[in-house]
Design a protein that fits this description.
By secondary structure, the protein is mainly beta. It has one helix and ten strands; from the N terminus they run H-E-E-E-E-E-E-E-E-E-E. A hairpin with a 2-residue loop joins strand 8 and strand 9. This is Outer membrane beta-barrel protein.
């Protein structure tokens, strides 16, 4: 009986690999982004964004020239400020949708050139502490705001399931780069 259960992980791995080998219409991307200032203090230490996205590719195809993908994105962005008696920090969680047009420029389908928009909500938290002679002042604020932007990018598949990509624009970050997993 023990020997039968040893085959289950092997079968699951084989099944997973068969999914990777077929449609390739889903993409999960992980990236690091830079830029995009949300009105932080002038000398703030703005950290890189951590971004994850999912795209469903070829939702609609437009003949030989391209296709439409629809996806979702999550990003975390933070910044800190410290000057003598003042300390402040910002934390942003951003969720949204990212439709994109993909242009057929490479017949081998290794190179993907695309442009899209981002529509989402930014949940931000701000905290500030001032240590003065009269004591300590602490202020915090939470809010959510609608956010929108645009991006353009390119990805290159090294193997059928993995690509590197870079995007530039004005949405969650001004520039981001990372890896995409296709299944």
């Amino acid at each position: 009986m023990k020997h039968k259960f040893r085959k289950i992980p092997v079968l699951l791995i084989a099944f997973s690999l068969s999914l990777f080998a077929n449609a390739q219409k889903n993409t999960i991307g992980l990236s690091i982004g830079f830029g995009k200032d949300y009105n932080y203090y002038k000398d703030s230490d703005v950290k890189p964004n951590f971004i994850a996205h999912y795209d469903r590719n070829e939702v609609v195809t437009f003949g030989n020239w391209g296709s439409l993908s629809i996806g979702a994105m999550y990003a975390y962005k933070s910044a800190e400020y410290s000057l003598s008696t003042t300390k402040a920090n910002w934390k942003n969680n951003i969720f949204g949708l990212r439709p994109a047009l993909h242009f057929n420029v490479d017949k081998s389908k290794k190179l993907d050139i695309y442009a899209g928009t981002f529509l989402g909500i930014r949940f931000s938290k701000y905290e500030e502490r001032i240590d003065g002679t009269a004591g300590q002042i602490h202020y915090s604020d939470k809010k959510s705001t609608f956010t929108a932007g645009y991006f353009g990018g390119a990805s290159y598949k090294f193997i059928k399931q993995l690509s590197v990509f870079a995007e530039a624009g004005n949405d969650i970050s001004n520039f981001r780069t990372g890896l995409q997993f296709h299944f």
